[in-house]
Amino acid sequence: MDLLELMRTRRSVRKYKADAVSEEDITKILQAGMLSASGRAIRPWEMIVVNDKEVLQKMAGCREGSVKMLKEASHAIVVVANGDATDVWVEDCSIVMSNMHLMAHALGLGSCWIQGRLRKAEDGRDTEEYIREILGYPGNYRLLAILAIGVPDEEKKGHELEKLPMEKIHYGKF
User: Fold this and answer.
1) Burial bucket for residue 7 (CB in 10 Å: 0-12, 13-18, 19+)
2) Is the whole-model pTM more than 0.85?
3) How far apart, in Å, are the Cα atoms of 12 and each of 34, 111, 127?
4) Alpha carbon distances (Å) from 168 to 8, 164, 173
5) How far is the C-alpha of 126 from the C-alpha of 123, rounded, in Å?
6) Is residue 66 within 8 Å of 60, Cβ to Cβ?
7) Fewer CB in 10 Å around end: N or C, the chain?
8) What is the dihedral of CA 133, 86, 36, 15, to 10 degrees?
9) For residue 66, is pLDDT > 80?
C-alpha cells in the first residue's frame, strides 16, 4: 500500500477485540515514533508503553466524558516531552503521534489519538496531572497525547480523495 492510500484509509478506531497486540508490532510502532522529525534534532519526547489492564482502566478517566477505548485497548503509548528542552515540543510530539498512528494502521491495527494537553479529567484535574499521578513521569515533562492501540473490532470506510476540501489550498497567496 502506498503512503497516500495508507493515509486515506487510516481512521480512528475506538472499539477493540480482546486479542493482544504482539510486542513485535508495538516495537515497530515505537520505532516509527522514534524516527520522527524533530526541530534541531532535539527529540524531546519520551514514550510510556502501558499494557497492564488495571492501569488502562485507571487511565480511562483521564478525560471528561471518559475515553472508554482505553479499557478495551491492548496497549496505550503515552507521549510526553521535556518542556524545558525546546519550545516546539508540541509540534515534535505531534509528529511522533502521527507516525505511530500510521504505523499501527499499516500493521492492520486500530488506534486512536487521545488528546491530553489542555484537557480535563473526569475528576476535574488537568489530564496531565491525572496521567502523571498514574505513570510517575517528572514534573518538567509535559503530556501531549495517548495513543490507544488494539486489534480493531470495527471497520470504517476510508476517506474519498474526491471529497477532500481542495478549496482550502491556496497558491501564491490566500
Assistant:
1) middle
2) yes
3) 21, 6, 20
4) 18, 9, 12
5) 9
6) yes
7) C
8) 30
9) no
Averaged pLDDT for residues 21-40: 98
As a whole number of angstroms, the distance between CA 90 and CA 108 comes to: 27
Q: How confident is the model at residue 1 (pLDDT cuts 50, 70, 90)?
A: confident
Question: 3-154: what fold?
Answer: NADH Oxidase (3.40.109)
**Distance between CA atoms of residues 92 and 144, nearest Å:** 10
Name the grid cell of 73.
485497548
Domain ranges of the chain: 3-154
Cβ-proximal residues to 107 (8 Å cutoff; 6+ apart), any chain: 25, 28, 29
Nearest to 138 by CA among 60, 85, 101: 85
Look-up: residue for cell 497516500?
4
